C-alpha cells in the first residue's frame, strides 16, 4: 500500500496550512451520496460540493457480501483535469449518477445489500484528501424487477439482450459452472491447469494469476496459449479464452522434496450477454511426486530473474538480424583478444613471421597473420559445431588431454630449437630435395603451415570459455541452428585475431633489416617459444616444478642476453645488458619463491611477504571438492537442511579464466564476506573423464569456468549462472542478487 502512504503524505503536506484556517469541508460533506435500488441494479448518486472534484479512476463500488456480485459500474464521461499529483485525469463535479448491475447467488434474495465505496478527490483551493473507503448498506426491493433510473439511463449496459425479451438474471450460470477449473501435477516440475468454459462465456488472459506459500517451491511464469482477440468495453483490446483453456505452470524445488503444494489461483471472466463476474479465487492442494533431482527455472519461465549473459546472447543468435549477430560477436571477440587466453598467440605468430628470414614486408606479414587468424576462426566455428553435437562439450575441453598437451609442448620446444639454429633433425635427403623444389616453385607451404598452427592454437593454446562462446554452442546444441551458431563462433574468432593482424601488418617496420641481428631476433623468439611450451605444460606438472621451469628459462635467457656482443665484438648496449641482468635476478627470485612454496610466477615472494604462507591461506576460499552428480546432490541436500545457499564452481587446471577468478576475484574481502554463510563446492573437471562429463551434462554446460548458485531452498538459480572471468566488484553484486532472489 505504498501508494496509499504516499497519497496520505501528500495530503498532509498540502492540508496543513489550509486546515489551520478551517476553510475546507470534511470529505463526508464535500462528497455526499445516495443509493437507490431498482430490480437487479443500484444507482449511486454523488453530489460533489462546489469547488471540489472526484477522480474517476480512484472510485469504485464493491459488494461485501458473498452472495451478491456486482458488475463493472457504468461510469459516465467526466471532464479532463491536469494536476501536479496524478497528471491528466477524468474528474467529476456536481451531480454524478453511477448505475451498477448486480447478481444474487443462492435461492434466497437478501433484504439488504452491504457495499463499500472507494473514492478520492481534491479541492480546487489545493487540498487533496487521502483515499476514502466508506461502508454502507441499502434495502433491496423484494421483487427482482428491472426499472429505469431517475436520470433515464436505462438498464445497465453490462446486460446486453440478444432477444427482444431480454435475459433474465436466472439465465446466467454460477461462476463455478461457467468456468469449471481443475489442476494436477503433469510432471515433477510442472503443474497442469485446466478451465472448461461454458458456451457464450470467456476468460480474460491477463486476469489469471497463480501464487503459492509453500516453502522451498518457486513458481515460474505461467505458460498460456495465445487467446482470441477481443475489444472489451471496459478493458480495451485484450485476449480471451473460449471453450477450453489448458495452461502449464513450471515449478522449481530441491531434490528429494515432497509433501503438498498449495496454490492460489485467481481468474476472471464474463458472459457474452453482458455480466462480468468478480475475480474468482481457488485454493488448490497438490501432492508433489517424489524426485531425485532438483528442478530449476530457465529465463523463459522465471518472471523476475534476470537473463544470464550467455542466454541473452543465445537469444540474439537465434532470433536477431544476422548482420547484427555477426557484428556483435566480432566485437565480443575483440574484447576477448585482450584477455590472457589470446596473449600466447602473439609470440607464436611473431615467431612464424620471424622464421621467414629475409625482409618481411607489411603485405607479407599481414597475409601470414590473416592466414593464421583464418585457421583459428574457422577452427573455432567447425570444431565448435562438431564437438558440441558429438560430445556435448567445447572442443577446448577435449583437447586438454595430457598426450595432446605433451605433443604441443614438444612442438614448441622443437620450434624453439629451430630458432636457435640447433635443430639437427632432418628428413631423408630425397624427400628434403623434393620439398625444397616444391617450395622454390610456390610459397603455399608457408601459408598451409601457418593455417595449421592457427588451428592448433585455437584448440589447445586458447583454452577460453566465455559467455559469447557458450551462447553459440548452446544454440548449436539445443536448437540445431548450426549455421547461425557457427557463424557467431567464426565472427568471435575473427575479433580475437584483430591484434594478430596488427602485429602482422606492422612486422615489416618493427623487425630489423636483414643482417646478423636477425639471428639474435630469431633466438629471442626461440625463448618466447620455450615460454609458450612452459605455459602449455603447466597443468600437467606440480606447481613447484612449474616455478623451477620459469626460473630456469629466466636465468638462462637473461644470461644469454647479458652476454650478447655488439657488431664490433665488444659488449652489447647497456640497456640490452640491463634487461638480461633483470631476467637473471627475476629467475633467482623465482627459485627462492619455489623454495618458499609460492605458486604464482608473477608474485614469487608472496609467501615470504605473508609470513610463511599462513596469511595467504586465509585469503583462499575453502571449497569442498565434488566429483559426481551424486556428490553434488548430497552436498546440496545437506546445505538445504542447514538452511544455507550453495555456490558451485566448475574449475580446470588448464582454464585461464579459472586462474583469474582464483587470483583476482575470490580473495576479495567483500566477496568472501558475502560467501561466508554459503556452502562452497568446486568441481575439478581437469581430467574430463566420464564423471566430469556427466556432471557438466547435468548442468548442460560445455566447460569451465561456470559458476552456479543455489538458494537456501536447494533450487538452482539458473538465470544467475556466470560464465568466464568476472571482476570482484561485479561478482559481489551478482552474489547479492543470486542469494537474495
Question: What is the strand content?
Answer: 15-25%
Number of E-type strands: 27
Number of helices: 25
| Overall helicity | 40-55%
Mean pLDDT: 77
- Structural category is alpha+beta
Short description:
With 741 residues, the protein is of the alpha+beta class.
Furnish the topology, listing elements before pairings.
Elements: H1 2-19, H2 27-30, E1 31-38, E2 41-48, E3 52-55, E4 60-63, E5 68-70, E6 79-83, E7 87-92, E8 95-104, E9 112-119, E10 121-123, E11 132-139, H3 175-178, E12 179-187, E13 190-197, E14 201-204, E15 209-212, E16 218-219, E17 228-232, E18 236-241, E19 244-252, E20 260-267, E21 269-271, E22 280-287, H4 309-319, H5 322-336, H6 345-354, H7 362-391, H8 395-398, H9 402-420, H10 429-441, H11 444-461, H12 467-479, H13 482-496, H14 498-505, H15 507-510, H16 516-537, H17 543-562, H18 574-596, H19 606-609, H20 614-618, E23 624-626, H21 629-641, E24 646-651, H22 656-665, H23 669-674, E25 679-684, H24 690-699, E26 706-710, E27 722-723, H25 728-740
Parallel strand pairs: 23-25, 24-25
Antiparallel strand pairs: 1-2, 2-8, 3-7, 3-10, 4-9, 5-8, 6-7, 9-11, 12-13, 13-19, 14-18, 14-21, 15-20, 16-19, 17-18, 20-22, 24-26, 26-27
Helix pairs in contact: 4-12, 5-13, 6-11, 6-14, 6-16, 7-11, 7-12, 7-13, 7-14, 9-16, 12-13, 16-17, 17-18
Word description of this protein:
The strands form 7 sheets. A 5-stranded mixed sheet has the order 23-25-24-26-27, with helices on both faces. A 4-stranded antiparallel sheet has the order 1-2-8-5. Strand 6 (79-83) and strand 7 (87-92) form a beta hairpin. The chain is built from 25 helices and 27 strands. Helix 7 packs antiparallel against helix 13 (482-496) and helix 17 (543-562) runs antiparallel to helix 18. With 741 residues, it is an alpha+beta fold. The model is unreliable at 1-21, 143-169, 299-305, 423-427 and 435-445 (pLDDT under 50). Helices cover 42% and strands 21% of the residues. The longest helix is centred in the middle third of the chain and has 30 residues, at 362-391. The radius of gyration is 38 Å and the shape is elongated.
Amino acid at each position: 500500500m505504498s501508494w496509499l502512504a504516499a497519497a496520505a503524505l501528500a495530503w498532509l503536506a498540502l492540508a496543513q496550512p489550509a486546515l489551520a484556517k478551517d476553510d475546507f469541508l470534511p470529505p463526508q460533506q464535500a462528497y455526499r451520496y445516495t443509493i437507490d435500488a431498482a430490480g437487479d441494479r443500484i444507482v449511486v448518486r454523488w453530489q460533489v460540493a462546489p469547488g471540489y472534484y472526484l477522480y474517476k479512476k480512484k472510485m469504485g463500488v464493491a459488494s461485501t457480501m458473498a452472495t451478491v456480485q456486482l458488475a463493472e459500474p457504468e461510469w459516465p464521461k467526466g471532464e479532463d483535469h491536469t494536476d501536479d499529483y496524478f497528471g491528466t485525469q477524468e474528474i467529476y463535479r456536481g451531480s454524478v449518477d453511477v448505475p451498477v448491475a448486480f447478481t444474487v447467488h443462492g435461492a434466497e434474495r437478501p433484504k439488504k445489500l452491504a457495499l463499500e465505496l472507494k473514492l478520492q478527490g481534491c479541492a480546487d483551493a489545493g487540498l487533496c484528501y487521502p483515499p476514502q473507503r466508506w461502508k454502507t448498506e441499502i434495502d433491496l426491493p423484494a421483487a427482482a424487477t428491472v426499472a429505469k433510473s431517475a436520470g433515464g439511463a436505462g438498464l445497465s449496459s453490462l446486460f446486453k439482450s440478444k432477444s427482444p425479451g431480454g435475459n433474465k438474471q436466472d439465465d446466467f450460470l454460477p461462476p463455478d459452472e461457467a468456468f469449471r477449473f481443475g489442476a494436477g501435477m503433469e510432471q515433477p516440475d510442472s503443474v497442469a491447469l485446466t478451465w472448461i468454459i461454458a458456451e457464450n462465456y470467456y476468460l480474460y488472459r491477463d486476469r489469471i494469476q497463480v501464487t503459492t506459500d509453500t516453502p522451498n517451491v518457486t513458481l515460474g511464469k505461467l505458460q498460456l496459449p495465445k487467446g482470441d482477440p477481443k475489444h472489451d468495453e471496459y478493458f480495451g483490446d485484450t485476449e480471451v479464452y473460449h471453450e477450453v483453456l489448458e495452461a502449464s505452470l513450471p515449478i522449481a524445488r530441491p531434490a528429494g522434496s515432497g509433501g503438498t503444494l498449495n496454490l492460489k489461483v485467481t481468474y476472471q471472466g464474463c458472459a457474452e450477454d453482458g455480466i462480468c463476474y468478480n475475480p474468482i479465487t481457488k485454493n488448490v492442494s497438490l501432492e508433489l511426486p517424489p524426485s531425485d533431482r532438483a528442478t530449476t527455472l530457465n529465463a523463459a519461465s522465471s518472471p523476475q530473474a534476470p537473463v544470464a549473459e550467455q542466454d541473452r546472447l543465445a537469444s540474439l543468435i537465434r532470433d536477431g538480424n544476422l548482420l547484427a549477430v555477426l557484428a556483435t560477436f566480432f566485437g565480443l571477440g575483440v574484447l576477448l583478444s585482450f584477455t590472457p587466453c589470446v596473449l600466447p598467440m602473439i609470440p607464436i605468430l611473431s615467431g612464424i613471421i620471424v622464421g621467414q628470414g629475409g625482409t618481411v614486408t607489411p603485405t607479407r606479414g599481414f597475409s601470414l597473420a590473416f592466414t593464421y587468424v583464418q585457421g583459428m576462426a574457422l577452427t573455432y566455428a567447425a570444431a565448435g559445431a562438431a564437438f558440441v553435437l558429438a560430445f556435448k562439450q567445447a572442443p577446448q575441453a577435449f583437447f586438454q588431454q595430457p598426450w595432446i598437451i605433451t605433443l604441443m609442448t614438444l612442438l614448441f620446444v622443437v620450434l624453439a630449437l629451430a630458432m636457435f639454429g640447433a635443430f639437427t633433425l632432418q628428413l631423408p635427403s630425397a624427400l628434403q630435395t623434393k620439398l625444397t623444389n616444391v617450395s622454390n616453385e610456390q610459397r603455399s607451404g608457408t601459408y598451409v603451415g601457418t593455417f595449421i598452427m592457427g588451428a592448433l592454437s585455437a584448440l589447445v593454446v586458447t583454452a577460453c570459455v566465455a559467455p559469447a562462446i557458450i551462447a553459440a554452442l548452446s544454440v548449436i546444441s539445443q536448437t540445431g541452428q548450426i549455421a547461425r551458431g557457427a557463424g557467431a563462433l567464426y565472427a568471435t574468432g575473427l575479433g580475437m585475431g584483430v591484434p594478430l593482424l596488427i602485429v602482422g601488418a606492422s612486422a615489416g617496420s618493427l623487425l630489423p633489416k636483414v643482417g646478423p641481428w636477425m639471428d639474435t631476433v630469431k633466438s629471442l623468439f626461440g625463448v618466447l617459444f620455450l615460454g609458450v611450451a612452459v605455459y602449455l605444460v603447466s597443468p600437467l606438472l606440480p606447481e613447484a616444478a612449474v616455478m623451477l621451469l620459469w626460473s630456469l628459462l629466466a636465468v638462462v635467457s637473461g644470461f644469454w642476453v647479458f652476454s650478447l656482443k655488439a657488431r664490433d665484438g665488444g659488449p652489447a648496449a647497456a640497456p640490452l645488458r640491463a634487461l638480461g641482468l633483470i631476467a637473471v635476478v627475476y629467475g633467482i627470485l623465482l627459485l627462492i619463491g619455489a623454495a618458499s612454496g609460492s605458486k604464482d610466477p608473477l608474485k614469487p615472494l608472496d609467501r615470504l611477504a605473508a609470513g610463511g604462507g599462513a596469511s595467504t591461506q586465509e585469503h583462499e576460499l575453502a571449497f569442498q571438492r565434488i566429483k559426481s552428480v551424486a556428490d553434488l546432490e548430497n552436498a546440496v541436500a545437506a546445505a538445504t537442511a542447514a538452511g544455507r545457499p550453495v555456490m558451485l564452481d566448475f574449475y580446470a587446471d588448464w582454464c585461464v579464466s579459472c586462474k583469474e577468478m582464483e587470483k583476482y576475484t575470490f580473495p576479495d574481502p567483500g566477496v568472501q564476506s558475502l560467501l561466508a554463510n554459503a556452502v562452497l563446492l568446486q568441481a575439478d573437471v581437469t581430467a574430463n573423464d566420464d564423471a566430469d562429463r556427466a556432471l557438466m551434462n547435468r548442468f548442460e554446460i560445455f566447460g569451465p569456468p561456470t559458476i552456479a548458485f543455489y538458494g537456501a531452498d536447494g533450487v538452482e538459480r539458473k538465470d544467475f549462472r556466470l560464465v568466464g572471468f568476472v571482476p570482484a566488484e561485479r561478482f559481489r553484486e551478482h552474489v547479492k542478487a543470486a542469494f537474495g532472489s
